[in-house]
Write a structure and sequence with these properties.
Elements (H helix, E strand, L loop, with lengths): L1 H19 L12 H8 L3 H14 L2 E4 L3 E4 L7 H10 L1 H25 L2 H19 L3 H19 L2 H21 L3 H20 L2 H38 L2
Antiparallel strand pairs: 1-2
Helix pairs in contact: 1-3, 2-3, 3-7, 3-8, 4-10, 5-7, 5-8, 5-10, 6-7, 6-9, 7-8, 9-10
Protein name: FCD domain protein
GO molecular function, one term: DNA binding
Pfam family, one: GntR
């Protein structure tokens, strides 16, 4: 595990250097997975994780079916992150509506079909989430959150649900990267995932459904809080410019 994390970090560092080059402009396409694997001497999984981390940090935009593109050459400032929640509020609410429709059902099926190996994998993801939360590592938290929810869909063993979730994941990637820069949001999701895991431990589909619904309600509340933080920051900025 240590070697793989190191390989991901090295791949991420290489890509950051690539993005920082003067010849690399915003909108440029990154080398393909195959090219990066050959250049770095690593597997596709390592390259994909490195790219997703850069996406979570705001450097990269992933366009389904087209590849990864440079979104910006510098990490976004706090003001840019906070303003993003206001601009994208309607889109995020639409995504959350879809999540409310499919994730409680998916977790019920996942609890019913979960194997001991599946449960170990979910616990492993949760353990990585806790470490990332302690280190305040927003990109890793975003990745762990995505892995946790995606693995639940895999445990549900319903190809159609899994396909729908892939579409949702693509839409959620930026939201996840932004939301975990806010400390309260980090504190909320760790116990929420633990509660969902408890349903798996007890083999209780109805409990899983209830805990997932409660978790998604918290996500919606976090969105509202993030939007309010954004407004407060905007107001502070206006007062500062006015000298008040």
């Amino acid at each position: 595990m240590i070697e793989r994390v190191s390989a991901v970090q090295q791949s991420e560092a290489y890509l950051l250097e690539y993005i920082a080059q003067e010849s690399t402009q915003v909108g440029c396409k990154l080398p393909t997975e195959q090219q990066l694997c050959k250049t770095l001497g690593v597997g596709r999984g390592t390259v994909r994780e490195a790219v997703r981390l850069l996406q979570a940090k705001g450097y990269v935009e992933i366009r389904p079916g087209r590849g990864a593109f440079v979104a910006q050459k510098e990490e976004p400032k706090k003001e840019e992150i906070s303003g993003w929640f206001q601009v994208n509020e309607a889109n995020i609410k639409d995504i959350n509506d879809v999540r409310f429709a499919i994730e409680p059902f998916a977790v019920m099926r996942a609890v019913e079909n979960c194997t001991p190996r599946d449960l170990m994998q979910l616990h492993a993801i949760q353990a990585r989430s806790i470490v990332a939360a302690e280190q305040k590592d927003a990109p890793i938290l975003a990745l762990c959150d995505e892995q946790f929810h995606t693995y639940i869909f895999e445990c549900a063993k319903n190809p159609l649900l899994l396909d729908i979730n892939k579409r949702v994941v693509a839409q959620l990637a930026v939201f996840r990267s932004k939301t975990f820069t806010i400390p309260d949001n980090v504190q909320n999701f760790i116990p929420a995932h633990a509660a969902v895991l408890e349903a798996f431990e007890k083999r209780d589909p109805e409990l899983g459904k209830f805990m997932m619904e409660r978790h998604l309600k918290t996500v919606a509340a976090d969105l509202e809080a993030s939007k309010n933080i954004s407004k407060s920051l905007d107001a502070c900025g206006q007062h500062a410019r006015m000298g008040t």
